[in-house]
Design a protein that fits this description.
Helix content is about 35%, strand content about 15%. Helix 5 (about 230-245) crosses helix 14 (about 435-450), helix 12 (about 390-395) crosses helix 13 and helix 13 runs antiparallel to helix 14. The strands form three sheets. Strands 2, 4, 5, 6, 7, 9 and 10 form a seven-stranded mixed sheet that branches. A three-stranded antiparallel sheet has the order 1-3-8. The protein has a two-stranded antiparallel ribbon with strand order 11-12. It has helices spanning about 1-20, 170-175, 180-185, 210-215, 230-245, 285-295, 305-310, 335-350, 350-355, 360-365, 365-380, 390-395, 400-415, 435-450, 470-475, and strands spanning about 40-45, 55, 60-70, 75-85, 95-100, 100-105, 110-115, 120-125, 130-140, 150-160, 425, 430. It is built from 15 helices and twelve strands. A hairpin with a 3-residue loop joins strand 5 and strand 6 (about 100-105). By secondary structure, the protein is of the alpha+beta class.
Amino acid sequence: MKSFLTAMVIVLVATFAGSAWGADISNPTRDIPAGWFVGPVIPDITANDSDVPIVVSPLDTVSIKLSIYPGILSGKNVDWWVGVQTPWNPPHHWVSYVYPEGWKDDIRRSFNGALFQIDGMQLYSMPLTVGQYVFYFCVSDPDGAPIGTWLGMDSVEVSVVEGYNAGDKASDELKKYLTEDDFKTLFPHAGEGKPFSIPDAADNLYSYENMLKGLDKKQEFAVFLSQGDDTTKRLELAAILANWAQETTGGWATASDGYTAYGLYYSEEVGVRGKEAPDWMSEEDRKAENERICASFRYYDASSDAARNYLPTEEPSCPPISNGCFFGRGPIQLSWNANYGRFSEFIYGDKMELLDDPDEIVKDGALAFASGFWFWTMYNDSEHIRNETCHNVMVDHGVKGFGRTLNIINGGIECNHKLPKMEYNKDIGQYNVDKTRRRADHFHRFADILGVGDQLPTRPEGYATNDEAWNTYYEEILEGCIEK
């Protein structure tokens, strides 16, 4: 660790003292990449010239570069922050560069001074030890505190994996934990909910082969199942499958083989495509209902700064909810135009590909699974758990990461409140199980089959009820999502 820090101090003292703080290296023709933090100042930090997470071996050189576009705030006095979230134990978990002293533990201001433009300044160029690193470059008001008004921020993640080879397939690791027979056991009804309203929808969208192909579509997905011990990897696999299962479930309470056997059933959000108010309504009521439907189900946002970067060529028509709307599709039920645009930008290098044809996800099984792996390993923009991916929280928290994955995926609806009361259904002689509890049920089933069920809280016998034992169980397994 000391050699790593010493090397970075030498590099940064020479770099910052010679250029960033004291020399004008601006380039007025600089382009602003899409997807950066939208604010008055646009910083960028890359790893091996990539803005998205990378996976390397401990023998590979990692090149970290800084750029910044100050815009109309050029010359403004600000606080500069350069820090690294490391895999090391506290107090070295956070390390910041403090100019001109060098690297210090904890989150500290790097420098206070005027804003100016920087283009591709080399910050670091050496191998890293095994583990996961997140490099941050941020600018804030000049108050010396890492809270309050951020003028701009960016981060990039580097996963250093022992024995990793860029030529290896990520699916080779997945095959160690999940065979095709296992997949068929876990998802005996996979793909049965094909959207027949789309003539060219894939017949076998959710196949084992498509899952492997989807994982291999991008090298960045190799971070999946790349960290932690055998138990950690099995728990992460159970967690992603559980969330996919609930997002796509076709199960019902009294199904002969149980509702948890119906994961990966539906290719897209149920009952949304073609949705509009019925003809029997009065004209006034029909108009109001159609406005509600459009607001609720087309998942289109053109109001926020981030969303305005990801608009289709034509605004999706509504009603009825049309093929061009951004309702849930694929195993993670990818939703909203901004997420379709970000994924399209990543997978194709062209945000318009899926913005103009979101139905591609239900036409191509490998693409569908790639959307699920993208969200799991790369999406870190949840307002409920900032700067964390589903992969990260499972590696960092193990079993207790599962509730946090829910908070990242659907926190605004399912999390950050107490468990809802379960209502007794006299027609079936059981309690109605809400979707949040069902995610936990999927997780427990998959964890048992993958051999790590003993890591989870002890599940009461029989069917779920609204008593203390069951509620305590769900509160424990959903830690990070449900408030006790």
